[in-house]
Structure formats: C-alpha cells, structure tokens
Amino acid sequence: MKEKWSQYKSIIILGIIITLFISGTVFYEKGTSPVSHSPKGENIVDEGDTIEEDSIEEVTPLYLYMEEDNLEDLYTRDPLDSQRLDGYIKLSQQEGEERRVEVRFRGDSTRYLPKKSFHIRFEEGQDFIFGSNRLNLNASYTDPSLMREKLAMDMFKELGLPAPRAKYIDLYINDIYEGLYIHIERIDENLLKNAGLNPNGTLVRDEFIRNIDKEEIDRSSLFGYNIDSIEEKEDFLKENFDYRNKPDWGALAQLASWIYDTPAGEEFYRGFQEKFYLEEFIDWLAIHFLIGDVDSFGDDYWLYIDHQAPNGRWRLIPWDKDLTFGSTFRPGEYVDNNFFAYEYHMIQHGHRNNDIITKFMTTDELRQKLYDRMEYLMEETFSPNYFKRKTSNLRKAIEDSVGIQPSEEAFRLHSQNHHGDLGDDDYYIENILDFIELRYGYLKTHIKQDKRDRYRAEIQLANYKAGDTLYFTDGRGWTMGKLEVHAIKGGDSILMEVEEIEDILPINRLWKITTNAEKISGQLTLYYRNDIYYFGRENWYHEDSPLGNQWSLVIGRYNKGEIETLESTVNPYSNKVTTTIELKNQEELIMTYQQ
Q1: Which residue has the higher pLDDT, 258 or 353?
Q2: Which of 1, 333, 413, 468 is the most buried (most CB within 10 A)?
Q3: Where are the transmembrane segments (predicted)?
Q4: Residue of 322, 385, 410 whose CA lies nearest to 117
Q5: How far apart are CA 422 and CA 406, in angstroms?
Q6: Closest CA to 79 of 114, 113, 111
Q7: Sign of the dihedral through C-alpha 31, 396, 171, 243
Q8: Number of other CB atoms surrounding residue 48 within 10 Å
Q9: Cα distance between residue 275 and residue 252, in whole Å
C-alpha cells in the first residue's frame, strides 16, 4: 500500500503576505496495491488513432560553475535576495569556452520550493537561447509532467501569436545534475524583433496585483482603475508597471481611460476593434480558457503597441503558464499538490479585476466571436489528438531526464525533478489528456448554455455505434462518466445519474445507469469529485486528501447493500476509475476498495 510523507513550509507571496504551506511529496510502494493500474502508456494513445510525428524536441545540456562560497551563499541567504552572483557556463564538460554569467534565483513564492528556478545573465547574446543574453530557467517543480508550460507556449506559437519560445535544459551545477528545466524566452526587444515587430515599441506589464497594499491602489489591474484621478499619470504608471526601453506612457493612459469610461456593449465592441488586433486577442484569450489559465489576467501577460506606427494597435503577449491543464493553487496545499479541477468559468471567475477581459466577455458580439473561435480550435487545431501527439513527442525528448533519480551524481542541491511520486509518468501525462477531454466538455456545455440538470445526463443512442464514446456531461459541464462503446444493439437512450449515499465509503456517491438498449457494452470510466470547498467544489472522498488510498479504488455493482467488485484500473490524479462492463436495464455502481 502507498504510504504518505508530507512536509510544510511557510510561503510568502509577493504583494500579499499570507501564510501558506507546501504540501510535500507522497511516496508509495508500487506493485503492492491489489488493484491493477493502467499499464504503462495505456490510454495515452487509443487504438486506431493516427498520431503524426513532430520533430522530437532537443534537451540542451548546460553546465553552470560557481565558486563553492558563492553557491552556498545563493542557497542559504534569503531566497528573495536578487543580488547576482558570478559564475560561468559551458555547453559541455569538454567545451573550452567559459561564458561568464551572473546568477540569481527567479520567481516569487516559488523561490521557497525545493527545486529552484534561475535567472542567468550573459555578457552577450547566445545562439542556444534565441540570441538573447538572458536565460530564464523554470524549475517546473509544481508540474510532475514537466510539460505544461511547454505545451501552453507552443499553442500560442502554433497560432502565430507573439509569445516566448520554450526549450528544455538539463542543468548541471558544478558537474552535479540538478534537474530538467524549461527555458522561457525573455519578453523584450529581442522577442519582438524575432516576432517581426518593432523592437522599439511600447512593452509593459501590469503590476497592480503586486502593489495592492498601496493606499492608492484598490484593485488587481490597471484596467478598471480611474487613471484620470491621477495627476502625474506617467510617474504613477512607471511605479506600477514593469517595462522595457522607453514606453509611450500616454498611449497606455489613454487605453486605461477608455477601458474605464466605456461600458460593455456596442460602443465597447466598436472601440475594441480600433484599439486591439481583434483576431489575435481572441486567439490569446481562447487559449487561456482552453488550458484553464484564468488567473493570468492580473500580471501574467505583457502589453505591446508599436507607438511609432500611425495606426498601431495593442497586442497581448502571454507569460507564466506553469499552473495550467488542471494544476492550481490550493489553500493549505500551495501549488505543489495533486488536486485536479477543470471547472474554471469563463465569466464568473473574476478575471483578476481586469476590465479588458470582463467587458470583452460581457459584450455579446465579442463573446460570440470568441466562442465561435473556441469551438473551431477544440475540434480542429487543438483537438484531443493534437495533445496526444504533443505529449507523446515531448515524452520521447525528456523521459531520460525525468527518470534521473537522486544519487551521488544527481540532486545535491535539489530534492528531485518535481513534487510527487517519481515514476508515475504515465499517470501524469494521462492526467493532462484527461484535463483536455473534460475541460472541452465543460466549455462546450457553457458555450451552448445547456440548461440540463446537475448530475444527470441522458444520451439518445440513434447516432452512436461501436467505436464511439458517450460522454455523460451534466448541465453544469461536469462529466460524471464516459462509455467507450464496444457493442450496441437496440434501444434509444441511456441515462446516468449520480446521487449521494452517506453510508457508502470511501466515495459517498452512487452512479445509476438506465438504458432500454438490448445490449450496450464497453469500457466505462466514472469520475468522482476530490477537491476542497474553498473553490466551491466538493469532495466525495471520505478524507481531505488528493490521493489517500485512492490507488486501491475499484468500481462495484451495488444491490441492496451487497457489492460485487469489478476488475478496474484507476488514476487518482484524474479522479477516475475504469472497468469493462455490459449494461442492461438499470445498473447501480459505486466506488469501493478491492475486497
């Protein structure tokens, strides 16, 4: 059985001082559970899928050398200390060239995590990081797949949007391996030039959310703030924005004033097209909603305009995409946790008080254009098959690095590559694919404004056949289960309902499936809720734990208190259990432990 180990550290989030805890790694002895887990790679690519091969990503080795005194200082001083320390870098142990660098940790609260992220500055531009002299090494400790940020940034590039490029780096510090990293291209004049944009344009980043403790700031974004109440607008914006070169602060103030003064509706629709590249903005926003990144609208983007062009319009450039594809912050658990969720509402979530987004989403014409584009992207460009191909190819590139275990030659300064169990790569990747499948069902339900009941879904069978998949998604967009059909004969409908049964453990729910089909069989997956109340969601598991003993869950037939367990596979990272079953008349199913 799996045994849990946890550790907690106090976390300081920049701008808002709160006490948090880091939920530590959970270790289990593989092979001791009586339940069969998904075989390695199962469900990542379904039989019959044709997966096109992308060129395999390269992982660049990077050797950082520092004097031991400097290295000790870096790791023992206040993690928020940003004074740079000297070192040099080589691209191989044998390379003669020593590239002089200055090194510090990067990030905010993530500096307290066991695996550190780095900002490294070279004396001149480097070809291996797209000509820049800045290396942003993201540890991705909170992402056990080590794929989320790479997947997200590649999506923006796929649509031709200005966005940072991402590449994998194997980092060695004084010849000891310290982890697989993702370099995210710095957003600066080099990125603009590489994207075919004027490198001298205005490039700014809203930092209201970081300065929320200031008396004059009462919201998390400039957009919705009455900038005209500020007499010295340029000084005010300089103090509360990050920026490159020499921005046109007047242009930014004009945009903020227009956003503040213009109500959602026809006037906002007309003006928006004059001030933003509409199609680019829609793609930028659509990707955020597809990957579940709805907390990025405070400071996780940059604004750009070529103020030297007579008809220049604003563009948004994405940043910081590690907490995506179901990964997010949890009170008391911080961000290195195994909770899973995909129900991030496109309108109700709040948009970090950013009225660019809020007024866009409450302007009917703009919202409909977004929804039309999202439906296309979900079916055509970023289909589930796209993510199967991408994760398959990324895995080939990084699996050797991900598989490196702590030893005398690896992880002297850091504990391991990522939080959570090592060796669960199949389940971590499957979790990303499950997120896409479930997130898309949720989004489509809300786009169509489906008004069906909660925890109830009825499917008409006339248009389904063997090989199809039935999704039992309720009126709020939550998927209770799915059936990958092996055989179907007769009948016209199948109904799934979920109801609470208090005395059933460890999952206090019953799945009731009713059909008039003469025969319907296939691989049935049931999903359960395991989240925390803070986000308005529920926990059906009998304890407040993202994993607990969920590796031992099986599906069981339930009949007047009697339980017949079925051979099942489980992935608790996705809150799901799967079995092969033939359904007739009415079935009552529960989740229990193997008897």
Answers
A1: 258
A2: 333
A3: 12-28
A4: 322
A5: 10
A6: 111
A7: negative
A8: 6
A9: 11
Q: Where are the alpha helices (DSSP H) in 293-414?
A: 355-361, 364-376, 384-402
Tokens, residue 284: 């930028």
* Mean pLDDT across 350-361: 92
433 φ, ψ (degrees, to nearest 5):
-65, -35
Alpha helix stretches (DSSP H) within 214-248: 233-240
3-state SS assignment for residue 356: helix
Distance of CA 35 to the CA centre of its chain: 29
Is pLDDT of 65 > 90?
yes
Q: Write the pLDDT tens digit of every residue in 286-338.
A: 999 999 997 789 999 999 999 999 999 999 999 999 889 998 888 778 888 99
Contacts of 408 (CB under 8 A, 6+ apart): none
Measuring CA to CA, how many Å separate 506 from each of 261, 456, 510, 540? Answer: 53, 22, 11, 8
**pTM for this entry:** 0.90
The secondary structure of 246-287, three-state, reads CCCHHHHHHHHHHHHHCCCCHHHHHHHHHHECHHHHHHHHHH
Contacts of 129 (CB under 8 A, 6+ apart): 135, 167, 183, 185
Compute the distance between CA of residue 202 and CA of residue 16 in angstroms, rounded to an integer. 28
Pair of tokens at residue 312: 């220049």
Q: What are the beta bridge partners of residue 489?
A: 519
Convert the pLDDT of each residue in 189-229 to its tens digit: 999 999 999 999 999 999 999 999 999 999 999 999 999 99
Rounded to an integer, what distance in angstroms lies between the CA atom of residue 356 and that of residue 359? Answer: 6
| Under 8 Å between Cβ of 356 and 262 | no
What pLDDT, on the 0 to 100 scale, is given for residue 499?
97
- Tokens read off for 85: 């320390």
Structural domains of the chain ordered from first start = 450-593 (2.60.220)
